[in-house]
Amino acid sequence: MPRTFRNPILPGFYPDPSICRVGDDYYLVNSTFEYFPGLPIFHSRDLVHWRQLGHILDRPSQLPLDGVYASGGLYAPTIRYNRGTFYVINTLVGGTSKSGNFIVTATDPAGPWSEPYWLENAPGIDPSLFFDDDGRAWYVGNRMATDSRYDGHTEIWLQELDLAAMCLVGEPCVLWEGAARDAVWAEAPHLYKINGQYYLMIAEGGTSHDHAVTIARSGEITGPYKANRRNPIITHRHLGQDYQIVGTGHADLVETQFGEWWMVLLAMRPYGGYFYNLGRETFLVPLRWEEGWPVVAPGSGRVALAERTPDLPEQRWPAVPACDHFETQTLAPHWNFLRTPRDDFWSLCARPGYLRLRLRPERLTDLANPSFVGRRQQHMRFSARAALEFRPQHDDECAGLVLVQNNEFHIRFVITGGATPTVHLVKRSTPESNPQLMPIIPGTDVTLAELPIEGSRFYFKVEADGQAYSFYIATEPESWHPVAEGVDGRILSTPYAGGFVGTYIGMYASSNGQPSTNSADFDWFEYLGLDEN
Fold it and tell me: What residues does 376 pair with on adjacent strands?
């Protein structure tokens, strides 16, 4: 029997994958929107098992996310390698001090990466780079069509890139508007040169249920490009909203050192109805060439949960510990902040063995950088626990755990202050779902539970069984008291809340608009994915 692996290869909020190979090594990056550090970079030798090396943008000087709206920030990176240098090109959307397309470089994919080279006169999003075998470099991206006739009418355009000056030169040219008649949101372009032909692969249909991957080719890089008559080469939009994988699109291709071709792409796994709290995830699917065109998932034409393993030597990496005891000098790479941190609101040194969060006026509901350290929800069923030492000094002070889709759709599970500490479970959402991905609809707070609690050391537990989230508190290890069970988690999904991100779970502290000198100390945090089979 052939070996198989289980999709997705990166579960949880890891959208817009881009991949490149250097020798026997594979590198992959993803979008991160309003989260900091930006653009995780992963390394693999077998395309199935991945380890995170770090982030492309891990310094505030590289990534000004201040004031970025929910699901603004970093869109759709591309990673490429050329003559000893790695390049990542990306778009910052909605920046209050800087926005647009930029390039960063490194000679080691683990970093450090350069400061951004911002590109002038480069409109649109989803930029990609192509290095031709004659030494020339090219920028390819999408933008609103110059003769836009309908909402979502975009075009793919090309211009030469001067690598020495890091600027666009020559005249831009339009390559394609997509395969479908009146195609919407032609985006995510990548160029490849295979057997002397230039192939332009894009996504179209929008990054939700109607997502698709299409392709065209030309003998000249500037075109004209002829569409594959068998487009789209992959989509699941015809399979219905109750199919186990939906929204397939935004793909990139890689050829192994042994001549196999594979595609990485995003998709979603709905559960509890058409809701996908895990966001858009990274999947892997085989590809072969027939009559000069790619055939994706030969024999089925579908992205599968169980797929044959690439013909590569297996390379597993040490497992990431389920429990973080905060005993290192730096945060593990799976931890993120909301927007760019501009002060030292967190510390692993102030109290060794603890993550200390300083209470600040910023709230989770603000488009700000609150005292929040979180990680992705990566399983439909999971258990997360944490130990917190905290003495609230005023009614406005709180600390605990939060589940976050965005600033208007989240759940706060916190200890609040005053003479008698109280456990508060608060849901922020709207009464009805958001029918559009953007903009985010303002939400309101609803208290689901509150109860007084004694002590200064608290144990939190959140368990999810599909869309049912349950919350427990304790003052002694494993002596759990239910706060609320079976809370509806659908507000944590994009089809309800809008936007483009997946759910985060993490640690949070705030003085809710008031000054404070207090802090919250988290002794440990554990996240355990439970069997979904």
Answer: 504
Domains of the chain in start order, with CATH, are 18-237 (2.115.10.20), 323-529 (2.60.120.200)
Predicted confidence at residue 441, as pLDDT, reads 83
Report the alpha-carbon distance of residue 186 to residue 533 in Å, rounded: 36
- Answer whether 0.90 is exceeded by the pTM: yes
The Cβ of residue 166 has, within 10 Å, a number of other Cβ atoms equal to: 15
pLDDT digit string, tens, across residues 457-470? 999 999 999 999 99
Residues 452 and 420: beta-carbon distance below 8 Å: yes
On the question of a cis peptide bond just before residue 224, with omega within 30 degrees of 0, the verdict is yes
CA torsion, ordered 131, 134, 140, 146, to nearest 10 deg: 170
Are 79 and 94 in contact by the 8 Å Cβ rule? The answer is: no
311 DSSP assignment:
S
Structure confidence by residue, pLDDT tens digits, 249-287: 999 999 999 999 999 999 999 999 999 999 999 999 999
Q: Measuring CA to CA, which residue among 335, 338, 336, 339 is closest to residue 95?
A: 339
Residue 440: predicted pLDDT: 80
pLDDT, mean of residues 504-514: 98
| Residues forming the active site | 16, 187
DSSP E strands in 185-260: the ranges are 187-194, 197-204, 212-218, 226-227, 234-235, 246-255
Closest residue by Cα to residue 173 from 159, 155, 193: 159
pLDDT tier at 133, thresholds 50, 70, 90: very high
Of 429, 392, 428, 402, whose CA–CA distance to 519 is shortest?
392
Instruction: List, as one string, the DSSP characters of 3-18.
Output: -EEES-SB-SS--S-E
Nearest to 126 by CA among 310, 36, 21, 251: 251
